[in-house]
Specification:
alpha+beta; five-stranded antiparallel sheet
């Protein structure tokens, strides 16, 4: 989120908290891209903020409540206020418990166990949600429309369009069992807490094979998740790479260094297998950013 929206979003979150008798006069930015995550102080509440109409916060609130009720490992809403989506100055604000991290990362064994428990819980709840193919369609629209992705080179546009379409057909043709999924259970959406590994950010939930979720997590996590179809997982990893590449070329994308990510994701797809995981791509990009420049 860029200025002045960034400043207005913080002000909106503080205003909402204060109106609910949660003392808040400061905000620590935890994450900033298309939406904003803030730790409000001194009430110590996590606020998630996005422009109204660019979020599905009501679905996230409903799903988080239902998953908590069936004992799923999820971050829960702030109990001192009503579990609602609050709007202020054009922003949708949701308020959650802030969990102090106990370790920098969740171990692969704990990550896999928590994700399996999450999937079990998701099979117990009924909510209206899109299919994973709807998310593919959103990526395809960005790639197909130069007005939405004006900086995407023509050759890469043709390549990504073809890859997204072929992977969607290949995964559909497998006829794998589908269920409600997190949608993006990557390391940025799992917390290491005193209560164990907890998943957050359910705005991307969708229906699909569990391998679609597994395509977002580190390889070591997949090794501890039971019953994985490796062929389907490979196809889903390619699909995730192609989808993320498309989103990074979206004209409205505000992900830090987004264009650089878009270039590297397309390059990785062109290079072929073995398909890198998202955490591998993040480390690769971090290494490129830190490498010395040669004139």
């Amino acid at each position: 989120m860029e200025m002045p929206d960034f400043t207005r979003a913080i002000a909106a979150a503080i205003s909402v908290a204060a109106s609910l008798d949660l003392p808040a006069n400061d905000a620590i930015v935890l994450h900033n891209s298309n939406k904003l995550a803030l730790r409000l102080m001194p009430c110590d509440v996590l606020a998630r903020v996005a422009p109204v109409g660019q979020e599905v916060a009501q679905l996230e609130v409903e799903l988080a409540q239902r998953l908590a009720e069936v004992g799923s490992p999820v971050g829960v809403l702030e109990p001192r206020v009503d579990p609602l989506v609050y709007t202020r100055d054009g922003f949708a604000v949701t308020l959650w418990i802030y969990y102090e991290p106990v370790t920098p990362d969740v171990s692969p064994v704990d990550y896999a166990e928590a994700l399996e428990r999450l999937h079990v819980g998701m099979r117990k709840v009924e909510v209206a949600s899109p299919r994973f193919t709807d998310r593919i369609a959103e990526a395809e629209e960005i790639v197909a429309n130069p007005d939405l992705s004006p900086e995407l080179a023509d050759a890469d546009r043709v390549f990504l369009s073809s890859r997204l379409g072929s992977l969607r057909r290949a995964i559909d043709d497998r006829g794998a069992e589908e269920q409600l999924l997190h949608g993006e259970p990557h390391p940025g959406n799992v917390l290491s807490t005193k209560k164990g590994a907890l998943f957050i950010d359910f705005e991307t939930c969708c229906r699909g094979p569990v391998e679609f979720d597994l395509a977002h997590v580190p390889e070591a996590v997949c090794e501890h998740y039971p019953g994985v179809d490796q062929g389907l997982l490979d196809e889903c990893r390619q699909l995730v790479l192609a989808m993320v590449a498309a989103w990074r070329w979206d004209r409205g994308d505000q992900f830090p260094n987004g264009r650089r990510f878009g270039e590297e994701f397309v390059r990785s797809l062109r290079e072929g297998p073995p398909w890198p995981t998202l955490d591998m791509m993040a480390r690769r990009l971090d290494g490129l950013e830190k490498s010395p420049k040669v004139s």
